[in-house]
C-alpha cells in the first residue's frame, strides 16, 4: 500500500440542502473534537445524565429513560422494535412512504405479524382511518412515522395517543426527520416510545440516536430482562418473558448501563455523545418553539421561492414537514444533470428521491443549522441559474423575490 | 429547564491508562471535526472506498468486504453473528474471559445451539483443545476472541484456520482489543470474519466497528439477501435462505450500501468514518509491524515497572496481550480507593475488573496513542506515590528504574 496516496481528510465545502444529512453546526463539531473520558469517570457519567435531561426537553417528556442508542437513526428504531415486539405480536403500520415500509421490514424481522394500511405517497392518514384499522387488527403496537422525508409528509399524531389508550395499544413514532423542526409532544400526545436522529433538524452528524420510553414501555421491556454471564452476580434476576433477540439493542441492558447500576454493556461512543449533547443544548438555548418557528419560516420561504420559479411541488402542502419540500422535476429536464451541476459548480446538494418518486421529484431541505435565510437564497439562486442553463425558462429573479417577500411579511 | 446550567463540553484532562477507551490521537479528533458531506457525494463515496483499502491493510487481507459497522465494537460482532448464524446452527465458543461469554450470549440470541469449552481466567487454549472440541461438536462456526481484556490474555489463532478448513468450519475472531497492537493475519490465518473497535490500539473514539469478511463468508451471507420494499426494483432478487433477523445488522444490505450499487440503508456516520479513516491512515503511515512493536515495547516496560514495584501480575505472561496488563491488588489495599486517588489527584485512569476478578485485579493499558514512554512513566510514578500514601511499601523509584532499564536495553 502506498500510504502517501491517502491524504488528510479535507472534504470539499458543500452546502447540504437535501433531506439530510445536512451541515453540522460548527459548534457541534467543536464539541466533538474534545478529548475522551473513561466510561465510568464521574465527569462522563455526569455528561450522560445531562444528555438525559436535555433530551427530555427536546422530546417534551418527563420519561426517565431518555437516552442515546449508539448507531444511526435506524439503530434507535430497531432497538425499540426489537425490545418491544415479541415474536407473534400483531403490529399495525400506517404506511405513507418509504420509512413506513422500513418499520414493516424491521417488525417482520422481529417476527411480528405485520398489518398495514396505505395511502398514496404525498398524503397522510386521518385519525379515523387509523382507529378503524386498530379496531379491525387489534394490534399490540401502533408503529408510525411522524415525518417521512421520502414524501415530505408529516403525519398528525396528536389524536392518536387517546385512540391507542382506548384500545390498549402501545404507541411508537419514528421522529428521525421531524424532531426539532416540527411540533412533537411525547407526553401530551401519549407516546410510549419515540426515536430520532442527529442529521436532520438537530444539526449534528449521523451516528447516535436519541430515544425516549414511557414508564409503560419500560415495564414491557423489563419483562424480558437479561444480564450477561461475564458480569452477572447472584443479585441479578432475569425477566419472565422470552429474551430480546439482540444483545446490542437490548434496551433492558442499555437502561442498566445508563441507570445508577452503570452495568457494563457497550462502550459509550463518547464523541457522538458530546455531539448529541451540544445539539440538544443549542436547541434548548434557542428555545424549542423558536427553533420550530425558524424551520417553518425558512421552509415556507423555500416553498415560495420554488413556486416563484414556476415549479410544481409534490404532495399535500397542508401536511408538509416544515423542513423538507418535494419539487416536481419539470418535463424535459434531466433531474440528475441538474443536481450534478448544482453540486459541482455551486457546491450545493439537493436530494433525489426513492421508489415511485425516483426521477420525478427533487427534495430540498431547510433544516437544523441550514434552516437559514442565506442557505435558502443561495439554493434558489443556484437552482434558477442551472435550470436556465439547461433550458427551463423562468422569470429572472422571481424565485428570490418571492422568498424576500415572504421574509418581509414575516419579519 | 434552566439551560444556563448546561455549559460547553469541557472534559477534565485525563490520561486514560485502563483497558480502553484510551485517549484519542489528537489528529483523529481533528479529522472528526471536518464538515459533513452528503452520503452519495463523490467525495464521500471516495472516502468510503479509501476506508475499505486502508482497513484491508490493517486487517492484512485482500477481502473486498472490509467495511465499517456504525455502532460500537459489539455492533460489529453482532452484525457478523446475526448475518452468519442461522437459527439452529451449532457454534463452538472457547471461553477464556468475559468476551467469550458475550459471544455465547449473542449467539444464543441468534438462536444458535451454543457449545463452549472453558479454561480458567488467565489462561488460553491449545490448538489441540480446540480441534478436539470441533471434532466432538461439529459446529458450523468457531467463534473466538483474540484478545480478551477481561483477563489480558491473547489467544493464539495462527493454527486454527487450518483446523477449521479441515472440518469445514467458518472461523471468526473478535479482535476489538487486539487489532493494531498484536499480530493479526486475516488471510494467512484463514479467518472468515474479523471485527474490531476504535477505542483500543487504533487510537480513536468508540462508535464505529471495522469488519472484514472472506469471500466464503460473503457467499454464506448472500444466501439470506433481502432488499427493502421502499427501494426495491424488479431487478432485485432475495436469497433462498431465511432472512437475517435484523435490518440494521443485515450485512447483505450493508455490502450493497458500500458496493457499487450504493443501495440506501442507514445514513453513514460520516464523522465516525472520518475518524476511522484517520486511525487507519496513521497506523499504516507508522507501519503495522512498527506499531505492534511499539505496543510490545511499552507494554513490557509497564510490566517491568509493575514488577519493579514488587506487585504481582495476573495470568500467563507468555500469552499476555501487548497492550494490557493485569495487576494483582496487594493484600490490605483498597483497589477502588487507589484508582480514585490516581484519577482525582493525578488525572490518570487505570481499570478495574469484571466478574471473578472484580476487586482483585487492576488492568493497566498501554495502547494506541497512549503506547508511549511518557504515559508509562507517569502512570508508574503516580501509582507508586498513591500506593506509598495508602501504606503499601516499595523501594522508592524502583518501578521507574525498571522501566528505564527496559527502555535502555531495547533502544
TrEMBL record, chains A, B:
This protein's UniProt keywords: Aminotransferase, Pyridoxal phosphate, Transferase
The organism of origin for this protein: Pantoea rwandensis
Family: Belongs to the class-V pyridoxal-phosphate-dependent aminotransferase family.
Domain Aminotransferase class V: 43-351
Keyword Transcription regulation: no
Cofactor: pyridoxal 5'-phosphate
Protein name: Aminotransferase V
Alphabetized GO MF terms: transaminase activity
Source lineage: Bacteria, Pseudomonadati, Pseudomonadota, Gammaproteobacteria, Enterobacterales
InterPro entries in UniProt: Aminotrans_V_dom (IPR000192), PyrdxlP-dep_Trfase (IPR015424), PyrdxlP-dep_Trfase_major (IPR015421), PyrdxlP-dep_Trfase_small (IPR015422), SP_NH2Trfase/AEP_transaminase (IPR024169)
Amino acid at each position: 500500500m502506498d500510504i502517501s496516496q491517502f491524504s488528510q481528510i479535507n472534504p470539499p465545502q458543500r452546502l447540504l440542502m437535501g433531506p439530510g444529512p445536512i451541515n453540522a453546526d460548527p459548534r457541534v463539531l467543536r464539541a466533538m473534537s474534545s478529548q475522551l473520558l473513561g466510561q465510568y469517570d464521574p465527569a462522563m457519567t455526569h455528561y450522560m445524565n445531562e444528555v438525559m435531561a436535555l433530551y427530555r426537553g427536546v422530546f417534551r417528556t418527563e420519561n426517565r429513560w431518555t437516552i442515546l442508542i449508539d448507531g444511526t437513526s435506524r439503530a434507535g428504531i430497531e432497538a425499540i422494535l426489537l425490545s418491544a415486539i415479541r415474536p407473534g405480536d400483531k403490529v399495525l403500520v400506517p404506511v405513507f412512504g418509504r420509512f413506513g415500509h422500513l418499520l414493516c421490514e424491521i417488525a417482520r424481522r422481529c417476527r411480528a405479524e405485520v398489518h398495514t394500511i396505505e395511502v398514496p405517497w404525498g398524503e397522510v392518514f386521518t385519525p379515523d382511518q387509523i382507529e378503524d384499522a386498530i379496531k379491525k387488527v387489534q394490534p399490540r403496537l401502533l408503529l408510525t412515522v411522524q415525518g417521512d422525508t421520502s414524501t415530505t409528509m408529516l403525519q398528525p399524531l396528536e389524536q392518536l395517543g387517546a385512540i391507542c389508550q382506548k384500545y390498549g395499544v402501545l404507541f411508537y413514532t419514528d421522529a428521525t426527520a421531524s424532531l426539532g423542526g416540527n411540533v412533537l409532544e411525547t407526553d401530551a400526545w401519549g407516546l410510549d416510545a419515540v426515536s430520532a436522529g442527529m442529521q436532520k433538524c438537530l444539526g449534528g452528524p449521523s451516528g447516535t440516536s436519541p430515544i425516549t420510553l414511557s414508564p409503560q414501555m419500560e415495564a414491557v421491556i423489563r419483562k424480558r430482562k437479561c444480564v450477561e454471564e461475564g458480569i452477572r452476580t447472584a443479585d441479578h434476576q432475569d425477566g419472565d418473558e422470552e429474551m430480546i433477540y439482540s444483545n446490542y439493542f437490548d434496551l433492558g441492558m442499555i437502561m442498566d448501563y445508563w441507570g445508577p447500576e452503570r452495568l457494563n454493556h457497550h462502550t459509550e461512543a463518547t464523541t457522538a455523545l458530546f455531539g448529541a449533547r451540544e445539539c440538544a443544548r443549542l436547541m434548548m438555548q434557542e428555545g424549542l418553539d423558536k427553533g420550530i418557528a425558524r424551520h417553518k419560516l425558512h421552509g415556507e420561504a423555500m416553498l415560495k421561492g420554488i413556486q416563484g420559479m414556476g415549479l410544481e411541488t409534490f404532495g399535500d402542502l397542508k401536511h408538509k414537514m416544515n423542513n423538507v419540500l418535494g419539487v416536481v422535476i419539470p418535463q424535459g429536464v434531466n433531474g440528475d444533470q441538474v443536481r450534478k451541476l448544482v453540486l459541482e459548480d455551486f457546491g450545493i446538494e439537493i436530494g433525489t428521491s426513492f421508489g415511485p418518486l425516483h426521477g420525478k421529484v427533487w427534495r430540498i431541505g431547510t433544516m437544523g443549522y441550514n434552516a437559514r435565510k442565506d442557505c435558502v437564497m443561495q439554493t434558489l439562486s443556484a437552482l434558477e441559474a442551472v435550470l436556465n442553463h439547461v433550458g427551463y425558462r423562468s422569470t429572472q429573479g422571481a424565485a428570490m423575490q418571492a422568498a424576500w417577500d415572504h421574509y418581509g411579511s414575516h419579519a
